[in-house]
Amino acid sequence: MISCWRYLGYLARHKLKVFAWCCLLGVPWRGLLHDLSKLLPDEFFAHAFYFFGDKLERKSRQTRLDRAWHRHQRRNRHHWSHWVTVDDYGCISAVEMPNRYIREMVADWAARGDGDPLKWYI
Questions:
Q1: Are 17 and 57 in contact (CB under 8 A)?
Q2: I want to staple 22 with a disulfide (CB 3.0 to 4.6 A). Which of 16, 67, 68, 107 is the partner?
Q3: What integer is the mean pLDDT of 45-61?
Q4: Does 50 score more than 80 pLDDT?
Q5: How far apart are the first and last CA of the chain?
Q6: What is the pLDDT of residue 110?
Q7: What per-residue confidence (pLDDT) applies to 113?
Q8: What is the Cα–Cα distance from 40 to 117, expressed in whole angstroms?
Q9: What is the Cα 12 distance to its own chain's centre?
Q10: Taking the alpha carbons of 98, 109, 79, 23 in that order, is the dihedral positive or negative?
Q11: How far apart are CA 105 and CA 59, in angstroms?
Q12: Residue 12's closest CA among 30, 36, 42, 29?
């Protein structure tokens, strides 16, 4: 239970930082909506227990986290991977990412990189 509260606190701080960056980048509404899917049970518990749970059990939780991360990227258009597709023949293509989601992505990276989006990306 403690891991859930710790993750919720982390998530609230992250969302606040992203909101501030989204406001600076002219997309405040995207900042309000940012990462809401992380509150859904299939994402929330996987992240909470992997990052804030017992360190010894982390490896056993990797598959659950991988699935949650995949769902998160598909649900949230601010991830560049949301815009990449693989067809039935294995050909990879990208759809143009709208500007508002690019700005939200940069805000997300800036929030994670202590104000430097490139730091997070690298």
A1: no
A2: 107
A3: 86
A4: yes
A5: 33
A6: 94
A7: 83
A8: 26
A9: 13
A10: negative
A11: 28
A12: 36
Instruction: Give percent of the chain above pLDDT 70.
Output: 99
Please state, in angstroms and rounded to a whole number, the distance separating the CA atoms of residues 54 and 3: 9
Q: Residue 3 carries which side chain, given as an amino acid letter?
A: S
Instruction: Return the structure tokens found at 86.
Output: 């693989």
Residue linked to tokens 């050909």: 91
SS3 for the chain is: CHHHHHHHHHHHHHHHHHHHHHHHCCCHHHHHHCCHHHHCHHHHHHHHHHHHCCHHHCHHHHHHHHHHHHHHHHHCCCCHHHHEEECCCCCEEECCCCHHHHHHHHHHHHHHCCCCHHHHHC
What is the pTM (predicted TM-score) of this model? 0.88
Q: What is the C-alpha separation between 113 and 98, in angstroms, rounded?
A: 23
8 A C-beta contact, residue 35 and residue 76 = yes
Residue-level pLDDT at 117: 77
